[in-house]
Amino acid sequence: MTELKILFAASEVTPFAKTGGLADVAGSLPDALALLGHRVITVMPYYRSVREGSFNLKLYDKSLSVPFKGCHLDAGIHTVGLKRNTQAYFIERDEFFDRSGLYGTPRGDYFDNPERFIFFSRSVIELTKLIGFQPDIIHCHDWQTSLIPVYLKSLYADDPVLTRSKSVFTIHNLAYQGVFPAEMMRVSELPLELFVMKGLEYYGKMNFMKGGIVFSDAITTVSEKYAQEIQTPEFGYGLEGVLRERRAQVHGILNGVDYQSWNPKTDPHIAANFDSRNLSGKKACKQDLAKIYGLKGTSGVPIIGIVSRLADQKGFDILAEAMDELLKLDLHLVLLGTGDAKYEKQFDALGKKHAGRLGVKIAFDNVLAHKIEAGSDMFLMPSKYEPCGLNQMYSLKYGTIPIVRATGGLDDTIQKFDSRTGEGNGFKFTDYSSNALLAEVNRALELYGDSSNWLTLVRNAMRMDFSWKRSALKYEGIYRQLSDSL
């Protein structure tokens, strides 16, 4: 099989900068594709957090000249070699990227985000020519890079370096579309005839994500269920009609898990290591977690863990409604996360009121997240919508049984356990309500009291494999279909 040249364009990439699952995909999928024999480079902005990190970047010996608002702006390039001969490039322009946050501050988004990512998108394309990388595939992610497919089909359509390049656009979360005033069309320098209903126009404004959907050669989402959901009014956020028109090009591919980082057998962050054949270490992890959160009387009582952004999307409205009843049950709860101020305040107060049974830490803490996955007995994810979700897959590997709502990637990855057949890997409810959430938690508690069936369920969960290899093969299939169509 011939080697493909693939360029990943993303606004965040682990380990360099992260706000969500997009960074995990952009950090892990290139490595998995390189394992399949492809040449992959990744391009992202040179944020302040990258500058201040210990990444051993090198300044490239040439700078970019990027067309922008009728003139050209210079941009520095930094680079570093990654695993398996993959390479990362960083676009430096301090006026756009030397800031405390990636997209904004706690007070809100940066006012010039459209200009920032128009500039970044043009930089990505110009970089291919400067470094002599002629990509077969340019893989773009979310609204921040969604104009790249538009540029490829318009301003760069006749560029000899890019004539063979096909674009893939991945939607990680359709709720965030990059909708800006119409004047951004002039800033982008895209042909004004593209500002129509069949193009970038959206109720009189410019919709960046719509551009990626309309002009890319293939569209992917991060789970099969989410690919279906976004074509409905409930989850389409106004773009369901556009997606239905392109449904033949829409593919759902579940995100993978980095098992080098998330594996209880080797995890350096947890109190004791364990695997499905020897679960004794999980007991030590539970004791450690109980001590950290000051829980009392955890012997024989399950701990339910939550690591999440505190927001309606993640189900915190129905969780808040259910808290009084949940705390009447024979269980302990631990929560880690940050998010909407109203939920931070509400759950922090609940944690103080119910100290010893409910542990709450309003923070981002990667080490503690690992300890929660390892030390909890169950993991709760009652999301209103969830394009993919990763924590339920982490939980399975740690023998921590997910309790999820049947949406997006949660529905794709979790199968209800059937005690009669011994099949299944978790608990799942359909209705988006506090009553449905409570009923499913009660079912989980009932099975927890059946030690034989519970052990079967735990071992089922730990045998699940959601490694990146399977997902990478599916992406490779799409890439090859596009490159073979030339």
Brief digest:
With 486 residues, the protein is an alpha/beta fold. It has helices at residues 21-35, 48-51, 94-97, 113-131, 148-153, 184-188, 208-215, 224-229, 233-236, 240-245, 280-293, 316-326, 341-353, 366-375, 391-397, 408-413, 434-448, 451-463, 468-484, and strands at residues 5-9, 39-45, 58-59, 64-68, 71-81, 87-92, 104-105, 108-109, 137-141, 166-171, 179-180, 201-202, 205-207, 218-221, 250-252, 303-307, 332-337, 358-362, 378-381, 401-405, 427-429. Helices cover 38% and strands 19% of the residues.
- Count of beta strands: 21
Q: Give the proportion of residues in helices.
A: 25-40%
CATH architecture of the largest domain: 3-Layer(aba) Sandwich
CATH superfamily caption of the largest domain:
Glycogen Phosphorylase B
Strand content: 15-25%
* Dominant shape: globular
Structural notes for this entry:
The chain has 486 residues and is an alpha/beta fold. It is 38% helix and 19% strand. It folds into 2 domains: 5-256 and 468-484, Rossmann fold (3-Layer(aba) Sandwich); 280-463, Glycogen Phosphorylase B (Rossmann fold). It is built from 19 helices and 21 strands. Strands 1, 2, 3, 4, 5, 6, 9, 10, 14 and 15 form a 10-stranded mixed β-sheet that branches. The chain has a 6-stranded parallel β-sheet with strand order 18-17-16-19-20-21, with helices on both faces. Helix 1 packs across helix 19 (468-484), helix 11 (280-293) crosses helix 14 (366-375) and helix 12 crosses helix 17 (434-448). The protein is globular and about 65 Å long.
